[in-house]
Every structure is written in C-alpha cells, then in structure tokens.
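Entry 14. Structure prediction run on the chain below.
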Amino acid sequence: PIQSLGIPVRTLLPQGPRPRRDGFTWFQADHEEKTWEGKTEDVERMAERLAELIREVRAAHPELRRVVVTGFSYGGDLAWMLAIRHPELVDAAVPMGTRLLGDPGQEQRVARKVRVLQGEQDAIIPVRHTRERVAELQGRGVPIDVRTYPDLGHDVSPELLEDWRAFLRQSLQGQTD
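Output returned:
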C-alpha cells in the first residue's frame, strides 16, 4: 500500500518487542485483562519508546519534513497515544481499530490532524464507543474525525485502505481536507 501513494516517502515499521503466535505484539499477555487505566499505562509506556525512536530518526535525518503515524488495533492505540502525548513529533495520525485510550481531559494538544478508521461490526472495539469518543474530542476542539465501514469487523478492507492512502497522501503533502 505504501508504494501506491504515488509520492516519495520513507517508512519506519517498528516491530512489537514480544513474540506472540506467529508474529510479535507490543504488550504483555495480560494486557487485555487490564482495566482501562492499566491498558492506558501500558500504551503510554510503549508510546514513550516509540517517541524516542522518532526523535532518533529525526536527528539522523533532519531532511524529514512530516511524520504520520498509523497502526491497527494495538498499533492504532500507539498511533493515537503518540498523537496526544507527542504532538511535537507527529504531524498526523491514522489509528485504525483503536480504543482511543487516554483521558480526554489531559489531551491539551494533539497532532494537527487525526483520522480514525473503524469497522462498524468490530466485536473488539464497539463503533459506538469510537463515535462517542470522537464526538467528545471534537467538542473540545481536537482535530479528529472518524470514517466507519458498515460491513467491516476488526479488520481492514479495500475501502478502508483507500481512505488510509488518501489521508496519508494528503497529510504527507501538507494538505488538509
């Protein structure tokens, strides 16, 4: 999908540090059993590590102009947390299938633009929760919007990927919509 953006980009694809099944994950096995606050603390800790990585990459490559963070599920949680805790490092964020963790009262500044992509049939992250969180944040002036997909669960689809590409393209070119 990155190649289909049609613009030159550099990608950084960090891998979760913990082995899980046939891949890797960002969090300990007990993450899902934790409270909202416990999950938030886990995500904040890992987002700090990713923020440090972004700082290191920016220091090594000062020619980089824009940083857009994106991820799905746990990766979406991290993209969102980076957008609200480190807006000085992130120009835009595209969290997908995310909980939007973090206390809305603490998010004084966020990345310039956030677009949440969410399946309406998501059994893990209820779309009602996502819509309520987005409306709450919009009411506080947070530059966030949401696009939902009627027949999509906790997954991606061609339509979601096209919206993802369009938002990335606009964000990397400094456009807003």
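The domain at 18-172 is CATH 3.40.50.1820 (Rossmann fold).
Filed with the rest of this week's runs.
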